[in-house]
């Protein structure tokens, strides 16, 4: 099951460590019996460290619908049809009111019931938030307070306390029993001396040694009462509690260190991203300047700026590419085709900029030069797009960039591209693909002649 960050404000934080399952709702039944089963409400409540009944009741109060929770199966039902998006919005309201700390925003709070008020005590920053008493869920929480959960450390301390008290009581009983047995033994010896006619207060050698040993021992210096045993256990417990507080301080310092490291990592990542973006922008600018330094790039820059035909003509005259007029048309056509997206059809790009091309293809020589430039482009610059040749020719014809007789003249001159350094073998694919369009023009011309 997919998980999301707790709290909508943290949705985009990939380093956020507080997660919960994404709410899944299933509409069941029909008519008056229609209901919504929140499939993973128990898992969501567990992630939020709240009883499932609280979340379900909150939905019921917000929607004005009855709810039903089966503790045995974990089934959570809200009467009526409600989609996951709507329920997720209400869940966000529950998280803000009853889960997140009002100070630091972390979902590490414990609900404390104080008379009729609800308090949220944050385990992260220690802040105590007071829940709005006007919320309808408050009365339900007051009547059904959350179970007080004991941490593992507290359980260990309570167990250790019980064991110490038990050991102390056992030791006290054992010492009391030994003292009683010793007194009984003394009484027996005294009675025996009386029977033998000896002085009852006279001590034997072994008794004297035993008494001396008792005086030197530490047992009789220890208070063996139950109260004293409990006091000693309490002193040991106090030391353990102090150790637990110290451990809590260590954990708080570790959490603060983790937050500092996280913030530092985020700042470094942001700085790195900004540096990369700056570097990419500088590289793009360098490439643009480098491109403008080329004949094609300089003309393309003018086209992007929306320069008029005179400015473009001046630029073509300035660079004076080899090949005369066909050479200038080659530069112009490459610049125009370069304005289109990589996936765009060449014919569409040409049609979009036909006005800029038409300004330089007004007479027969310039139109023939444009066809030679197309032949060069398809053979040298974009041989992988040579199949678009007839479509581009049709676009030129439709846009009046190349008249019918000019196209026929170009088709009849197989070595027309020789002025740009291409022989007939280099342009054979262009000629082959252009042939059907040329034939179509011839047939159309013959049909018109027959009609006349």
Automatic annotation (TrEMBL):
Composition bias type Acidic residues, residue spans: 202-217
Domain W2: 282-451
GO molecular function, one term: translation initiation factor activity
GO CC annotations on file: cytosol
Biased composition (Basic and acidic residues): 153-201, 255-286
GO biological process: formation of cytoplasmic translation initiation complex
UniProt-recorded name of the protein: W2 domain-containing protein
Entry superkingdom: Eukaryota
Function text: Catalyzes the hydrolysis of GTP bound to the 40S ribosomal initiation complex (40S.mRNA.Met-tRNA[F].eIF-2.GTP) with the subsequent joining of a 60S ribosomal subunit resulting in the release of eIF-2 and the guanine nucleotide. The subsequent joining of a 60S ribosomal subunit results in the formation of a functional 80S initiation complex (80S.mRNA.Met-tRNA[F]).
UniProt region (Disordered), positions on chain: 153-218, 251-293
Family per record: Belongs to the eIF-2-beta/eIF-5 family.
Keywords of the record: GTP-binding, Initiation factor, Nucleotide-binding, Protein biosynthesis
């Amino acid at each position: 099951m997919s998980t999301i960050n707790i709290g909508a404000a943290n949705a985009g934080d990939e380093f956020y460590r507080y997660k919960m399952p994404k709410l899944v709702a299933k509409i069941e039944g029909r008519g008056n019996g229609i209901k919504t089963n929140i499939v993973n409400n128990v898992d969501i409540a567990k992630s939020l460290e709240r009883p499932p009944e609280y979340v379900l009741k909150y939905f019921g109060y917000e929607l004005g619908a009855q709810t039903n929770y089966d503790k045995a199966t974990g089934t959570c039902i809200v009467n009526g049809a409600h989609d996951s998006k709507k329920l997720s919005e209400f869940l966000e309201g529950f998280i803000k009111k009853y889960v997140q700390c009002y100070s630091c925003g972390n979902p590490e709070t414990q609900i404390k019931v104080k008379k009729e008020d609800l308090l949220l005590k944050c385990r992260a920053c220690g802040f105590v938030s007071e829940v709005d008493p006007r919320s309808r869920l408050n009365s339900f929480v007051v009547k059904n307070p959350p179970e007080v959960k004991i941490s593992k450390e507290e359980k260990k301390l309570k167990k250790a306390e019980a064991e110490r008290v038990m050991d102390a009581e056992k030791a006290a009983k054992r010492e009391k029993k030994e003292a009683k047995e010793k007194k009984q033994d003394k009484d027996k010896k005294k009675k025996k001396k009386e029977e033998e006619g000896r002085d009852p207060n006279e001590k034997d050698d072994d008794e004297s040694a035993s008494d001396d040993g008792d005086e030197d021992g530490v047992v009789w210096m220890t208070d063996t009462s139950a109260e004293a045993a409990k006091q000693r256990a309490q002193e040991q417990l106090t030391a353990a509690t102090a150790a637990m507080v110290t451990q809590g301080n260590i954990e708080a310092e570790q959490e603060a260190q983790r937050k500092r490291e996280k913030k530092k990592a985020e700042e470094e990542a942001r700085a790195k991203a900004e540096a990369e973006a700056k570097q990419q922008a500088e590289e793009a600018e360098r490439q643009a300047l480098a491109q403008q330094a080329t004949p094609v790039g300089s003309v393309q820059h003018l086209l992007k700026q929306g320069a008029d035909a005179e400015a473009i003509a001046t630029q073509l005259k300035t660079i004076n590419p080899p090949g005369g007029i066909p050479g200038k048309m080659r530069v112009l056509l490459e610049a125009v085709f370069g304005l289109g997206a990589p996936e765009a059809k060449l014919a569409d790009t040409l049609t979009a900029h036909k006005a800029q091309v038409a300004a330089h293809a007004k007479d027969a020589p310039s139109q023939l030069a444009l066809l030679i430039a197309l032949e060069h482009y398809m053979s040298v610059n974009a041989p992988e797009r040579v199949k678009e040749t007839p479509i581009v020719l049709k676009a030129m014809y439709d846009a009046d960039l190349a008249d019918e007789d000019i196209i026929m003249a170009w088709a009849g001159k197989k070595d027309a591209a020789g002025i740009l350094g291409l022989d007939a073998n280099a342009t054979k694919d262009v000629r082959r693909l252009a042939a059907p369009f040329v034939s179509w023009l011839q047939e159309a011309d013959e049909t018109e002649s027959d009609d006349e």
